[in-house]
Recover the amino acids of this structure.
């Protein structure tokens, strides 16, 4: 158990819908990272927040957005969902902002039908 | 651009030694991680190399050559539970002054009795 929690574990929704994935980092960690892992793409970095502020951006679509709240939990919002958005979404956390050793949550499996 | 290559699949026998290679081409290189990921689970941290040479941690060792853009993960005394995907990830400094982790597609290792 890494200490990072993610909810929900599984999510099934229809195309065109919007969903919110939630992540709570390890106690004391200020950085939160979001990753997407699909079968054909591997683990893709989406976005990073550090202490409430956006720090680094990866291959995040405009339909996706994220934020980190004062209590340091983070939410990833996915809208206008497409079949290709079906994937495992991982959240990771670290103490510092420099993308050092990251601890991954168990992931949310999103299925878009 | 960033490019990370590792073999897609490998097989090995219980009790044996296996070496998983990773080559990378990246600007702003700032270190290399190895993660282990069992199917459907979160990646877990194995090792971090930022300087050239070998880092040993129990049955697992990781080597880095920055001049060659090359790393390997060495697994000794293989056990059935070592059957998993092994992800090579490069930490790189991007414009904006932030580091990101770029993951390879992973090497799926199957350990047979």
């Amino acid at each position: 158990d890494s200490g990072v929690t993610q909810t929900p574990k599984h999510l099934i929704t229809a195309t065109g819908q919007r969903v919110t994935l939630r992540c709570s980092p390890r106690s004391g960690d200020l950085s939160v990272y979001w990753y997407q892992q699909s079968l054909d793409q591997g683990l893709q970095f989406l976005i990073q927040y550090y202490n409430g502020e956006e720090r680094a951006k990866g291959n995040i679509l405009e339909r996706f957005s994220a934020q980190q709240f004062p209590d340091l939990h983070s939410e990833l919002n996915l809208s206008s969902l497409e079949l290709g958005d079906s994937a495992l979404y991982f959240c990771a956390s670290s103490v510092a902002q420099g993308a050092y050793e990251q601890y991954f949550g168990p992931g949310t499996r999103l299925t878009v039908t | 651009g960033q490019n990370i290559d590792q073999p897609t699949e490998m097989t090995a026998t219980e009790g044996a030694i296996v070496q998983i290679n990773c080559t990378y081409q990246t600007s702003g290189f700032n270190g290399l991680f190895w993660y282990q990921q069992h199917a459907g689970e979160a990646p877990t941290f194995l090792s971090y190399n930022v300087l050239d040479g070998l880092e040993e941690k129990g049955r697992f060792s990781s080597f880095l050559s920055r001049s060659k853009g090359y790393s390997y993960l060495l697994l000794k005394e293989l056990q059935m539970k070592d059957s998993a995907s092994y992800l090579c990830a490069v930490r790189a400094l991007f414009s904006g002054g932030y580091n990101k982790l770029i993951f390879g597609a992973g090497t799926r290792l199957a350990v047979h009795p």
